[in-house]
Structure formats: C-alpha cells, structure tokens
Amino acid sequence: MRDDVSAWSVGPIGRAILVSLVAVLLACNSGEDRPQTRNVPVGTPVAIEPVPTLSVGLVQGDPNQEFDRVVTPFLLADGRLVVPVAGASSIRVFDEHGAFAYSLGRAGAGPGEFRSLSAAWSRGDTIEAFDSRLNRITRFVPGGSVDVVALRSEVPDLSAVAGPVPDGWIAGGVASAGVGRRDSIALRWFDRTGTDRGAVGMVEGFARYRTPVLTGPEPLSPRPLLQISQGRAYVAESLTPAIRVLTPAGTLEREIVWQAETPYSGQDVVRVVVDSAVSQTHPDRAAALRQHLEAAVVPERLSVFWKFIVDDNGFIWIRPFEAVKHAAALGGLGLAGGGPGGRWSVLSPDGNVVGTVDVPDELEILSITSDAVVGISRDALGVEVVRVHHLERR
User: Fold this and answer.
1) Contact criterion met (CB below 8 Å) for 187 and 180
2) How far apart are CA 295 and CA 292, in angstroms?
3) CA-based diameter of the chain, in Å?
4) Measured between alpha carbons, how far is 33 from 361 in angstroms, rounded to an integer?
C-alpha cells in the first residue's frame, strides 16, 4: 500500500533491549504456555525445520540471484520456486534444486511488462501477476503467450491486495483517507474480462496524523489485514481478533474469532516507541522528532495481532503484535509485513486455536503449502535470500 511515512531504524542490540523493556513495562504474557485444544485436527502445523531445504539468492555475481524487493514468492506443484522481484520488474523461476530456469516480464508498460509488480500467484499451469500502478493482471500462459487484463474500476487505488478467485480476481486499495481518521479500504470483484462486478467488502486501514513537518500513520497505528485465498477474501484489521471470510459477491461466509492476549498499555508503549525512535536519530533532530511523535494521539486500543497467513490446508497462522518491532515510528517494519521470526498461533480451518509454531528468527514467511514454508531473509546490508523450509504437520 502506498504511504508517505518517514522511517527510522533500530539496531539489533537496541531492539533487543527495547523488546525486553516493553515486556517489563507491560507485563506481557511470555507465551510459554502454548494454546491447545483437546482434539487437534489432522494436518495441524507443528514445527518448521530450522535449516532450509532450498535457498536462492546466495550466488554472488549471478544477476539471476540478485534480488531487490522480493514479493510473494511461492512454490509450484512440481517443486519449482517462483520469485517475483519488484525491483527488477520480473518473475524468476528456479527448479526444485535451486537452479535458475527462466524469467518472465521486464520493466515497461507493454504486454508482459510491469511498472509496479506487487504480487504473483499460480492458476493451474499459468502464472499470473498484478501491477498495482497499471491496475492490470498479466497472465503468462504455458507455451509462451501473454494475456493482459486491465481492471476497470471506479476505485483508482488497488495497491492493498490482489488475488485470484475462480471467476476472476479480487483487488482493493484505499478508497478514502484523511488526517485524524483511519483509511477506508475497499475490495472489488473483477470478472475474467476485468470488469468491476461490485463491492466485496470494506475494512479500516491506517490511522493518520499530521504535524507541521511530518505526516503518516500514527506511531502505533492499526493496520488492515487482507488475503485472497481458496477463492475467498479473508478480511481483518489488527485491533480485533476476528477475520471475515467473504465470497466474491460480498456474502459473509463465516467469521473466525479467537481470544487474544490482553493488549498493551497505550501510554507505556508510546513512551517506549518515542524514546526508541529519538535515540536512533541524529542529536540535532532529536528534540524536533520527539515533539512530532508525541503530537500523535495516544490510542485507546492497540493492535492484538499484526499479520495472518492462510496455508494451503486452510489453517490460519496468526502473528501477534509486538510493539517495538511493529511500530511505524521505528521504521515501519510491520507496514509491509510482520517481520522475521516470532511465535505464531495456529487456528484450524473452523477457527479453533490448535497450537503455536516458532518461526526461525531470520525468516519472514510469505506463503505456506501443505509441507513447506516459503519466505525471505535479509542480512545486515539488506541482501535478500528466498528460502524454503520443510513444514511438519501432525
């Protein structure tokens, strides 16, 4: 989603100290007691193998393994790894052993070209990709042909989410925004010709504020949480532990609700977040930065979760909210995703909490199949490596 928030970063030592401080200040639940149900369904995720079975992006000097802003990597049914690279406006395909096979797309506005490659997925043997600047779907069909479908809608911004449904696509973005309130995110259903068939649903997005020199999401802004999976739109926002499952026609199929941990204290977290951001900036800017951040309203409620992923078996993985890691004022690590590592709760397809899974500290998971987790890791210089880890299920 497009945004104009300024960013500051926290070093690894400082982050570790701050995470500990937040835990002390807020008396957070340590999470040692993993939630369980009496009847754990077959297929429940249990553990991620710490050592990847496949990694690409490690070969220095190979342009095919140099990644800049990887988005939505995924596995094909035959084990090939597909890596959409937004910075290169291309989709790279690697075989099951990690050898480069071929590339799809390039920068431009013609057929098979991208201005802003924001997501890709498979539909049978066809790889589809979404360009959020051109508002169109590009379909790379087996045999080498390319189909382009322009999404025609009254909603100009479709940058929040896009994905396939059986009879077309669902896409959405900011329908309205303004200082002092939360964005309004609209989801629309498009048929195979790209015609807008109507509204699927709405959800609230980031909360924005403004000072004379800074505009953007509040330091502890909630966020919209969206995924298109299994032909449905999964829609939530981070303040409420509930996910709506909507059909393309906008019908509420079911709502998944769970019990979340007690939220943090807003005042305590704001103080830690502001102190953290100020400590990382240049001394000459510290006083002004503190003034700008403290001008934001202290939220009455804070997020209780920060990301979810629906895996190929229908289980829902929930990333809890971590105040220091996910605060916009500290670099907005959570604005684009949940960040690496963490202990995720797992819900069964019918919404029962069935356990937790620890994600390797350096891995940010982006897609989950029946037996693998696909994600990215970044080193201290921001170099991206796409990794596949084996997933154990019960």
Assistant:
1) no
2) 5
3) 60
4) 20
**pLDDT value at residue 111:** 96
The whole-number pLDDT of residue 264 equals 65
Q: How confident is the model over 316-325, as pLDDT tens digits? A: 999 998 877 7
User: What are the residue ranges in the chain where pLDDT is below 50?
Assistant: 1-37, 332-335
What confidence tens digit (pLDDT) does each residue in 335-371 have? Answer: 456 789 999 999 999 999 999 999 999 999 999 999 9
Rounded Cα distance between 22 and 324, Å, is 8
Give which of 347, 308, 371, 368 is closest to 40, Cα–Cα: 347
Whole-number pLDDT of residue 6? 33
**Strand pairing report for 113-114 and 106-107:** parallel
Q: Which residues touch 237 (CB under 8 Å, ≥6 apart)? A: 203, 204, 205, 222, 223, 224, 225
Domains of the chain, CATH where assigned: 12-393 (2.120.10.30)
The pLDDT value recorded for residue 13 is 37
Query: What count of Cα atoms within 13 Å lies in the side-chain half-sphere of residue 268?
Result: 14
Percent of the chain at pLDDT above 90?
66
Q: How far apart are CA 173 and CA 227, in angstroms?
A: 12
Q: What is the pLDDT of residue 272?
A: 81
pLDDT score recorded for residue 329: 53
Contacts of 104 (CB under 8 A, 6+ apart): 90, 91, 92, 93, 112, 127, 129, 140
Reported pTM = 0.86
